[in-house]
Amino acid sequence: MNFCTANDRDAGKRLDHYLLEKLPQYSRSRLQGWIKDARVLVNGAAAKSSQILRGGEHIEVSPADLPPLTAEPEDLPIEILYEDPSVIAINKPADLVVHAGAGNRSGTLVNRLVHHFNALSQVGGDLRPGIVHRLDKGTSGVMLVARDDAAHRALAAQFSSRSVEKIYLALVHGRMRAEEGRLTSPIARDPSRRLRMTTRLATGRPALTQYRVLLRFEKFTYLEVRIGTGRTHQIRVHLSSIGHPVAGDRLYGAPPAERVFLHAHRISFTSPSTNGRVTVEAPLPPDLGQWLTSLTV
């Protein structure tokens, strides 16, 4: 149970907005659900999300556990780029969610994986079998999946030690001046917009993004991007922070498009089963290739 007392500065705020500030680890919809279920009491009484605080209210929150999620098998297509006894590399299409969560209980990559493969690692739990790393929903490209727990831990250690090489292809707005660059701003959750990350705070997790210009167009620049860390939205927020948001990335300031132009093109790692170095490439999807050919140089 969480207890808090509204002060004079909180006067005029809606109850749900106030709770979102005090309990940022929970989504607004989840907090509103608890208010509706009378799991939030204001001065000992049930309240509404829209209740306006005056300051001085004693607020009690009794969080409710979410029902457990498990990955159910679904017979949906999956493109395999590479496999050996320890690891599978798949080509994730854009707009495919990696694993189930609030609002996404079916149709995910994991639902497909558990249908196509008899056994996957369980280190990530019932919700994320085999998942060692992830790609954003709108990002396409190559992604690794562990067949067993030993492989999962070995791959996770490689990601942690930064011995996995990850190369992306990105189209960004504007003409970049330098032929190549290195971005090292720390990345943190944006306190004012929970879905975004930011480089504008003094605190944040270290991040490394390197880019090289492949092609220049009249209003865009096509880049090869290497990341030395795996922060949430890392490429997107780093490139946006220097005034070159990824094309189609509305969350970070780009005009809307049919999809975000960000593709995980290549990954290199050491196979836990063979101990040999493996490089897997996912070709640029046809829709992104057509986008490039439509641009004016």
Describe the fold and architecture.
With 297 residues, the protein is α+β, with helices and mostly antiparallel strands. The protein folds into 2 domains: 60 residues, RNA-binding S4 domain (Structural Genomics Hypothetical 15.5 Kd Protein In mrcA-pckA Intergenic Region, Chain A, Roll), CATH 3.10.290.10; 214 residues, Pseudouridine synthase. 18% of the residues lie in helices and 26% in strands. The protein has 6 helices and 15 strands. The strands form 3 sheets. Strands 5, 6, 7, 8, 9, 12, 13, 14 and 15 form a 9-stranded mixed β-sheet that branches. α1 packs across α2. The longest helix has 12 residues. The radius of gyration is 22 Å and the shape is globular. The model has no long low-confidence stretch (mean pLDDT 90).
Quickly list its features.
Structural Genomics Hypothetical 15.5 Kd Protein In mrcA-pckA Intergenic Region, Chain A; four-stranded antiparallel β-sheet; 297 residues; Pseudouridine synthase; alpha+beta; 2 domains
Provide a concise account of the structure shown.
This protein is an alpha+beta fold and 297 residues long.
The topology string of helices and strands comes to: EHHEEEEEHEHEEEEEEHEEH
Strand-residue fraction? 25-35%
Level of helix content?
10-25%
Distance between the termini: 59 Å
The whole-number mean of residue pLDDT values reads 90
What kind of sheet is the major sheet?
9 strands, mixed
CATH-assigned homologous superfamily of the largest domain: Pseudouridine synthase
* Unreliable parts: none
Quick one: overall form? Answer: globular
